[in-house]
């Protein structure tokens, strides 16, 4: 029984992470929500993450500054145009070098300090934009590392990385969000907001979101 156990949830404010947080809550976990302010192009998502965390009753929500623009190397952290021509095969320029490795490492640190042994992340390896750090192999490798590199892990309190969306399509994720009452109206997905603060409608993330809602037969409540 998981009721009452703490879980650290990586919460970007997007559809996937919001759905995962709502799924964790539905399983009875108490939520510690972690949002990384990495000076991303779409920093508007930070405000959405705060609203989602409040709506889901997170016991604590940390927005941690970690400026990855100092590294660059991505259309989300450097002056590189966000592609608008459609989702293509391969690793896109919106990939942020080692982002999920960095984020999970920070989440692991908080989890160990807080006495949580469960971490949730909204990675998806089926209907996604080609990011290598969304694959099951990466998650399994990180979980093994977490249980090797921490005091809690070596003393027998094993960490588990939960990826409930890993094998879902975007349509599946929308359906799951509906089933657990995720506040989809509060979410933000666009990588390249317009000057008026609206989704661009053309980046990979916007396209995948629209495809998911259309295939699920559900109107997007955030539009």
From TrEMBL:
Its EC number is 6.3.4.20. It catalyses: 7-carboxy-7-carbaguanine + NH4(+) + 2 ATP = 7-cyano-7-carbaguanine + 2 AMP + 2 diphosphate + 2 H(+). GO terms for molecular function: ATP binding; ligase activity, forming carbon-nitrogen bonds; zinc ion binding. Pathway: Purine metabolism; 7-cyano-7-deazaguanine biosynthesis. Pfam families: QueC (PF06508). ATP binds at residues 11-21. Keywords: ATP-binding, Ligase, Metal-binding, Nucleotide-binding, Queuosine biosynthesis, Zinc. Binds 1 zinc ion per subunit. GO terms for biological process: tRNA queuosine(34) biosynthetic process. It comes from the Bacteria. The keyword Repeat does not apply. Zn(2+) binds at residues 190, 200, 203, 206. Its cofactor is Zn(2+). PANTHER family: 7-CYANO-7-DEAZAGUANINE SYNTHASE. Belongs to the QueC family. Catalyzes the ATP-dependent conversion of 7-carboxy-7-deazaguanine (CDG) to 7-cyano-7-deazaguanine (preQ(0)). This is 7-cyano-7-deazaguanine synthase. The gene is queC.
């Amino acid at each position: 029984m998981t009721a009452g156990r703490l879980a650290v949830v990586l919460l970007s404010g997007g559809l996937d992470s919001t759905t995962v947080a709502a799924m964790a809550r539905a399983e009875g976990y108490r939520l510690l929500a972690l949002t990384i302010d990495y000076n991303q192009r779409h920093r508007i998502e930070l405000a959405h993450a705060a609203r989602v965390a409040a709506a889901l009753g997170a016991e604590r929500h940390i927005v941690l500054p970690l400026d990855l623009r100092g590294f660059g190397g991505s259309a989300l952290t450097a002056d590189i145009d966000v592609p608008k021509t459609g989702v293509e095969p391969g690793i896109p320029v919106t990939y942020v070098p080692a982002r999920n490795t960095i984020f999970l490492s920070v989440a692991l640190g908080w989890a160990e300090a807080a006495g949580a042994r469960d971490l949730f992340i909204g990675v998806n390896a089926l209907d996604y934009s080609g990011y290598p750090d969304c694959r099951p192999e990466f998650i399994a490798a990180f979980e093994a590392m977490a249980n090797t590199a921490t005091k809690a892990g070596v003393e027998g309190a094993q960490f588990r990385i939960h990826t409930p969306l890993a094998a879902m399509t975007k349509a599946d994720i929308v359906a799951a969000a509906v089933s657990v009452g995720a506040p989809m109206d509060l979410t933000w997905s666009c990588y390249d907001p317009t000057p008026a603060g609206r989704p661009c409608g053309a980046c990979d993330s916007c396209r995948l979101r629209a495809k998911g809602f259309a295939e699920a037969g559900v109107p997007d409540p955030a539009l």
